[in-house]
Every structure is written in structure tokens, then in C-alpha cells.
Write a structure and sequence with these properties.
Elements: E1 2-6, H1 13-25, E2 39-43, H2 47-56, E3 60-62, E4 65-70, H3 85-93, E5 97-103, H4 119-149, H5 155-170, H6 183-191, E6 200-205, H7 219-230, E7 234-238, H8 240-246, H9 251-261, H10 267-279, E8 281-287, E9 291-298, H11 303-310, H12 312-316, E10 318-325, H13 326-332, H14 335-340, E11 345-347, E12 357-363
Parallel strand pairs: 1-4, 1-5, 3-9, 5-6, 6-7
Antiparallel strand pairs: 2-4, 8-9, 10-11, 10-12
Helix pairs in contact: 1-8, 4-5
The chain binds guanosine-5'-diphosphate.
Residues 7, 9-15, 72, 105, 107, 110, 205, 207, 239-241 line the site of guanosine-5'-diphosphate.
Amino acid sequence: MKLGIVGLPNVGKSTLFNSLTKAGAESANYPFCTIDPNVGIVTVPDSRLEHLAAIYDSEKIIPAAIEFVDIAGLVKGASKGEGLGNKFLSNIREVDAIVHVVRCFEDDNVVHVDGSVDPIRDIETINLELIFSDVEILERRIAKTTKSLKGDKSLAAELVILKKLKDTLEEGMPARALEWHTVEDERFVQSLNLLTYKPVIYATNVTEDDLEDDGASNNHVQAVRALAKEEKSEAFVVCAKIEEEISELDDDERAMFLEDLGITDAGLEKLIRASYSLLGLISYLTAGPKETRAWTITKGTKAPGAAGKIHTDFEKGFIRAEVVKYEELMASGTYTAAKEKGLVGVEGKDYVVQDGDVMLFRFNV
Ligand code: GDP
């Protein structure tokens, strides 16, 4: 999964990006390394992995990972291709979801590009750039489709969708706010890869004092929450300054620090939870003497698709999967014991994989 961090200058993006990637890299037993300073890999904490690795005596644990991209420089005029504008927009096109950082903290020492703290206005500024870019794409597509229409009547339905999208965007609403009635329509809209169709998580950057009540007494946060609800996005409260401090701590210190602040989760956990929920993601697990590993899939993925996450050959040559629920495996103590109790199911290609399934795939090569 790839998340792009956007927001106006000076809202706390870099502070947040640096602390999240540093905090999340702590346990990074991860097979790739960072090549680009604007890209960071964060591992997804999952306590099940350690317990599972213990019963398999695994050499290593590989957690699921999220790639963060710091997309700085998205400013007014970006869609006109001014400066590096186009590059930022194409960076956004490649991500699965957007983390939009908005400033909800007052601090006279930190200059706001538009003079005052107003997250809704800031969100509109960024959204407008994305909307301009999408409208341009839609206009080109509408012209092309209209031309081909005479020869191919099936394009008429597409044209209706394209025009509806354009009208919505021109009213200032993002494409993701629209509802589609059929899967085909939804797939078509998805295929356009519009920037405003990307799922968004708003990270409201607050002062330390707003953490304990989760932003309930901060009107800016409340306004962003309401907006997020309206457009089916997610929002969470974070303090980039505090995240910076947290990223310097080891696990024990961190737990104590969070307790002092009166909170249970740091920004990274909140962000991971929000993105899994927004994108409908779950994890299944594989375990063996070599490694215990978590794999991220979309809810509803069937066994061959899940196998394909590991290797395309697993999907192509899929025969069956042996599946045991994590809790049942742990309660049994070993895989053999779980099997003897009849807790290991043999599933075919229509099996819908569940969160916490421990899977073993059988396949032809
Ligand atoms: P970016 O331009 O969005 O990447 O913003 P930066 O992360 O560089 O932050 C801009 C300024 O705001 C820096 O001086 C940060 O120290 C400050 N800043 C960032 N997050 C917070 C925060 O949560 N509270 C306060 N008071 N200042 C912050």
C-alpha cells in the first residue's frame, strides 16, 4: 500500500513524514531500503506475528508495510503546471490513498501561507488544484468519446458518467463524493484514475493539549471531521511535534510517554487504522521456519488472489489452501494439534480470505 502525504506548506507535513517513517522503521526487518528521501517504508504493528513466529520457531518476521511518499510543493497553481506542479500531481496519481495534513494548531511563530488558521479553506485550496487537473482530463475524454460515439452506441453510457463527473467537479465537489449504482460504472470511474477519486484521510495537526480529548474541543478539527464524513473520507487527530518526540523513544519509554499524554495510540497507529478502514484492508498470515509474515489484501479477496500477493505463480497454479484461524491455532499450540482437532480447513478457489487466517497454499508450477 502506498500513501501520499499532501498539504499546504508549513502545516507540518515534513515533521509528520519524518517522525512516522522513523518510528515505523524501528522494527524494519524489511527487504527493501529507502532510495528516495521523500519515500519511507513503515511496518504495520501486528502482535500476532510474534506469537506465531514463536510456535514455528521462525528465523524472521516480516510485517506488512506501508510506503509513504512526502508530496511537498502542492501549492496554488500546481495544476497549471507552474514550477514542479505537474510532477506533484503525477506523484499523487500513483498512490492508493492521500493523507492530507491540515493545520489546526495556532502558533504565531509558524507562518501560515494564507495568513490564518482555517483548515476548510486550506482543504479547498488543495482540492481545487486536484479538481482543475481532473476537469482537464474529463474534457479531453468527453471530446474523444463524443467523436467515437457515432460508431459505437455503447459509449453513450460512458459519456453520461463523464459529464456527471465534470458537473460535480465544477461545483467544487471531489469525484469520490458521488455514488454509482452498478459495479461497471464504478469500475469505469476507477479506470479514469482521477485525483479527486482517491480515498482521503485528513490528518488534523493539533497542539499537544488537543490530544487528550481527541480534538473534541478544537472547532477546526470538528469542521474537518464533518467535511470528512460528508465526502466519505476519514479524519484523525495528530500532533506532529509530539510525533517527533515519540519517534526518538524506545518501546517502553514510548508507552509511558503516551500514558502521560492520556492517549493509547500514537499517530502511526491511528493512521494505519484509518487507512485499513478506509481502503477496506485486512491481513492474512503465513508462517514457517524461515519466516512469519503478514500480507495485506482487500476485504472480499478470494484465496487465489491472496496467493497472488506472494507470487503470481501461486495465483496461476492455485490448487487449494489450508486455512486455520490465528486464534484457533494459538489455542491448539501447534499446527499439527490444530489439524488433529479438525481446525485446519481445506479451501478451494472460491474461499473468501478473512483477517487473521493463517494460510498455506498448494499450487502447480
Ligand atoms: P511542511 O511545510 O508542511 O512540511 O511543514 P513542516 O513540517 O516543515 O513544519 C513547518 C513548521 O511548523 C516547522 O517550524 C514545525 O516545527 C512547525 N510545526 C509542525 N508541526 C507542528 C505542531 O504540531 N505544532 C506546532 N506548534 N508547530 C508545528
